[in-house]
Amino acid sequence: MKSEHYRFPFHVIFHPFDGYWDLKYDGKGRVRIAAAIIAMLVLSTVLQRQFAGFMVNFNDPRYLNSLNDLIYTVAPFLLFCIANWSITTLMEGEGKFREIVIATAYAMLPIVLINLPMTFISRMLTMEEAAFYYLATSIAIVWTGYLLFVGIMTVHQYTATKTVITLVMTVIAMGIVVFIGTLIFSMASQIFYFFYNIYRELIFRV
User: Fold this and answer.
1) Where in the sequence is the domain holding 111, given as residue range(s)?
2) For residue 141, what is the DSSP state?
3) Which of 65, 93, 105, 184 would bridge 34 by S-S if both were Cys, CB 3.0 to 4.6 A apart?
């Protein structure tokens, strides 16, 4: 039974309509497997940024930070899930937050499957062959986008048009959350330094 759970994400990416239907109505998706896929996505991102061939890797190694890669991978994933759940709750979506998390994570699998080997293959590519690297990574992104579209449509039982509208509103909601979060962080920092400066003045005067 456990092996079936591990094979199920591969069934989803090759048969998305059947796979997401089984995820929705047969409960075949697992949060721990979704978490493992996101962990592999973080790993593939770190390896790609640090070890991809110089023909396709323009990152300065002096400024690479694996912790930042972790944050910039996991944070958008969680933000998308939360924003989508918030929007679809208002738009009569049938998907639960757990289902959104699993469906979104499973949609990320093509990026892992393609980018991870391509990272090491890129170290052997010439300038003329670099186009194959970009083609492969583009296929991974398009494949993931298609799976995400089918997953959201199936989980919430939306039409294609309503799914597009929902995804656009989700992106807008993500932007609003980031803007408000940045604003709050900036204000909190200013308030902290204001009281910190007052504290220092009092200490020096005493």
Assistant:
1) 2-205
2) H
3) 105
Confidence of residue 195 (pLDDT cuts 50, 70, 90): confident
Tokens of 133: 């690297």
Q: Would you state the structure tokens that stand for residue 31, as one six-digit string? A: 């949060």
pTM of the model: 0.88
Give the integer Cα–Cα distance in Å for 164 and 93: 13
In the chain, the number of structural domains is 1
Where do we find the tokens 């390896």?
47
The two tokens of residue 195 are 């009281």
Cα dihedral sign, 147-143-87-28: positive
DSSP-assigned states of every residue in 27-51? ----HHHHHHHHHHHHHHHHHHHHH
Round to whole Å and give the CA distance between 136 and 98: 30
Q: What's the burial of 205, exposed, middle or buried (CB within 10 Å: 0-12/13-18/19+)?
A: exposed
**For the segment 127-185, what is each residue's pLDDT rounded down to a tens digit?**
888 889 999 999 999 999 999 999 999 999 999 999 999 999 999 999 999 999 999 99
How big is the chain by its Cα radius of gyration, in Å? 21
Chain CA centroid to CA 96, Å: 18
pLDDT at 78 over 80: yes
